[in-house]
Amino acid sequence: MKCPDCGNELPHVVCPKCNAHSPIGSKFCCRCGEPIPEEQKEEIQEEDFSSRKLCSDGTCIGVIGKNGKCLVCGKPYTGDPV
Length: 82
Known about the structure:
By secondary structure, the protein is mostly loops.
């Protein structure tokens, strides 16, 4: 799912019925209205703030996800920002 303003990849959940992307935290699919399963809601809960890593791009406000990439801009983590 891409931001309509800047085009950066946004964190999202995938609808089990129509495979459309909806923003994290959605209770229902933005396309078909299907409820988002509870297990997906649990997966998207924010981790402990003290253990999160900030994006290494000095201009981005995102945090690094479990896949090692920024949840806002999608860039891989390269170390702490300068």
